[in-house]
Design goal:
Structural class: alpha/beta
Number of strands: 5
Strand content: 5-15%
Number of helices: 8
Strand order of the largest sheet: 2-1-3-4-5
Distance between the termini: 22 Å
Low-confidence stretches: 217-228
Radius of gyration: 21 Å
Mean pLDDT: 77
Helix content: 55-70%
Largest sheet: 5 strands, parallel
Length: about 230
C-alpha cells in the first residue's frame, strides 16, 4: 500500500488555507494546515513533507524568516518551498524569495491549474524517492542479513528474490524516466529538474548493485546507500 505524501500549507488566513485545500484536494494527498511560521516549524519536527506552500506575508514570523529556519535544519533543508504572495515589489522582492530557498514564487491571485501542476511534480518526485529508499533498504537487508559475502552468495542462490527486486526497481525506473521527460517538455523549474536527475543517478547505482548480485558476475557485495 502506497502511503500518501504530505503537503504543508502555511497561511495566517483561514480562507486562504481553505482555498488551497480546495485546489489541491484533487491530488488525493494529505494536506496539513499551519496558520503561522511557528506552527509550520513544529509540524516539520515530526512529519516528512513532499512540498511546502508558504505565504510570504504573515504576522510575527513571515515567510522569508520561516523559510530560513527550514533551510537551516538538516532534516528539512531539502523540502521544496513554493512562496505565495499577494504583493509584488518587483525583481528585488522575487529575488529575496529565491535567496531564501524557494523553488518557485507565485503571486496571488494564481491559476489553480498551474499551482496544482507545480505541486504535483514535487509530489511525484517525493514518491519516487520514497520508493528508491525502500528498494535500497531491502537490498541492504539482504546483503547484511547473512554477513558480507555470505549474504551475497545467498542472494545469488535465491533468483526469486532477485527477480522481485529487479521488477520493483524496473517499475520505479520507468516512472522516473517518464517524469524526467515530462519535466523536459514543460520546461520545469531548475530545482525540479535537478531533483529528478539526482533520483535517476540513485536508481542507476541501485541497478548496478542488483546486477552485481546476478549469478556469474563474480563480484562481491556492492556498497548500497539509501541517502537521498
Amino acid at each position: 500500500m502506497v502511503q500518501k505524501a504530505k503537503i504543508l500549507l502555511v497561511d495566517d488566513r483561514p480562507e486562504n488555507l481553505l482555498a488551497l485545500e480546495a485546489i489541491l484536494s484533487a491530488l488525493d494527498q494529505t494536506l496539513v494546515r499551519a496558520s503561522s511560521g511557528e506552527e509550520a516549524l513544529k509540524a516539520l519536527l515530526t512529519d516528512d513533507f513532499a512540498v511546502i506552500l508558504l505565504d510570504v506575508q504573515m504576522p510575527g514570523m513571515d515567510g522569508f524568516e520561516t523559510a530560513a529556519h527550514i533551510k537551516r535544519r538538516e532534516r528539512t533543508r531539502d523540502i521544496p518551498i513554493i512562496f505565495l504572495t499577494a504583493i509584488n515589489h518587483g525583481p528585488h522582492h522575487t529575488f529575496r524569495g529565491y535567496a531564501a530557498g524557494a523553488v518557485d514564487y507565485i503571486s496571488k491571485p494564481f491559476d489553480p491549474w498551474v499551482l496544482r501542476a507545480k505541486v504535483s511534480v514535487f509530489v511525484e518526485l517525493y514518491m519516487k524517492n520514497c520508493q528508491l529508499r525502500e528498494q535500497a533498504a531491502l537490498l541492504r537487508l539482504q546483503l547484511e542479513g547473512g554477513g558480507g559475502k555470505a549474504a551475497a552468495d545467498g542472494a545469488k542462490e535465491s533468483p526469486g528474490l532477485l527477480a522481485e527486486l529487479s521488477a520493483r526497481l524496473a517499475a520505479v525506473e520507468e516512472q522516473a524516466e517518464a517524469l524526467s521527460k515530462q519535466l523536459d517538455d514543460e520546461s520545469a523549474d531548475a530545482a525540479a529538474v535537478a531533483t529528478a536527475a539526482h533520483l535517476e543517478r540513485k536508481l542507476t547505482g541501485l541497478r548496478r548493485a542488483l546486477d552485481a548480485l546476478e549469478p556469474g558476475t563474480g563480484s562481491g557485495p556492492p556498497s548500497v546507500t539509501s541517502q537521498s
